[in-house]
TrEMBL record:
Coiled-coil features, chain-numbered ranges: none
Domain (NAD(P)-binding) ranges: 6-179
Organism ancestry: Bacteria, Pseudomonadati, Thermodesulfobacteriota, Desulfuromonadia, Geobacterales
SUPFAM superfamilies: NAD(P)-binding Rossmann-fold domains
InterPro entries linked to this entry: NAD(P)-bd_dom, NAD(P)-bd_dom_sf, NmrA-type_oxidoreductase
Organism annotation: Geomonas silvestris
Listed name of the protein: NAD(P)-dependent oxidoreductase
Parts of the chain that traverse the membrane: none
Length: 283
């Protein structure tokens, strides 16, 4: 049996969709905070079990009978290290045979502040004694696609990446890789650096957006502080604006660029291109 945390999240749902092609539905456990949001998964035969990071005792029931666990990193920045520890401790007690954790590309050397909690989780996992594999996920192309509506509205795509290059892939590509690792043999101890096959600058992103829309959408590069200010002005919460601006600044220093082809090797095909992702977003 395979347990997926954050199962109703964007990545979690895609992982389960990939797993359903490989294993019977009743061997998949969706660990969720709100079972109401997982009714569609239950309807497909997936086991739905309630768990909460703030309730360590809830994880004993969630992990009962499970052999493998995918710990999808929490989205609560600043609280993730403690939340991840709760799950890892429960996995240790439950005798989980493989815990797979979704980390960040080159978490041990990344210039992105986002890497801190990921690296701390990796270290805790290593010291836990639980057999583990780490998926160091690069950027999701969707992270930048989310800014397309604003770019079309204002006639410019803004960021703070400079000439830095981003080797992103579709969230579904990373989900498929997770399903492969969860169902493959001899994965304990492996650390995968996962990124898209192609890379692009945000100027190239804007050029492709211009090509597909028939409009001139230039890329406007801003200093990190100004970019954060623009995000705050657009209504983003302080912590999220800080995260995005810092990530762009890290990308300017090569933090989101990779020539590693482990992702396409795992999924047995090329990763989804930016042009394809933009097409889906626009149509």
């Amino acid at each position: 049996m395979i347990v997926i945390t954050g199962a109703t999240g964007q990545l979690g749902r895609l992982v389960i969709a990939s797993l359903l092609k490989k294993v019977p539905a009743d061997r998949i456990v969706a660990a969720v905070r709100n079972p109401e949001k997982a009714k569609d998964l239950a309807a497909r035969g997936v086991q739905v079990r309630q768990a909460d990071y703030t309730e360590p005792e809830s994880w004993e029931k969630v992990l009962a009978g499970a052999k493998k666990l995918l710990l999808i990193s929490s989205n609560e920045i600043g609280q993730r290290e403690a939340q991840h520890k709760t799950v890892i401790d429960a996995a240790q007690k439950a005798g989980i045979e493989l815990l797979v954790y979704t980390s960040l590309l080159r978490a041990d050397s990344t210039p992105l502040a986002l890497g801190g909690e990921h690296l701390a989780t990796e270290q805790y996992l290593k010291n836990s004694g639980v057999p583990f594999a780490v998926l160091r996920n690069g950027w999701y192309t969707e992270n930048y696609l989310a800014s397309v509506p604003a770019a079309l509205q204002h006639g410019a795509f803004i960021g703070s990446v400079g000439e830095g290059r981003i080797s992103s892939a579709a969230r579904a590509d990373y989900a498929e890789a997770a399903a492969v690792v969860l169902t493959a043999a001899d994965q304990a101890g492996k650390i995968y650096e996962l990124a898209g096959d192609e890379s692009y600058s945000l100027a190239e992103f804007a050029a492709e957006l211009s090509r597909q829309t028939g409009r001139q959408i230039p890329y406007v590069n801003l200093p990190e502080a100004e970019y954060k200010g623009a995000l705050l002005g657009a209504g983003l919460p302080e912590a999220f604006a800080e995260l995005l601006a810092n990530s762009d600044a890290g990308a300017a220093r090569g933090g989101l660029y990779s020539e590693d082809r482990s992702l396409s090797t795992l999924i047995g095909r090329e990763t989804t291109t930016l042009a394809t992702m933009l097409k889906y977003t626009l149509h």
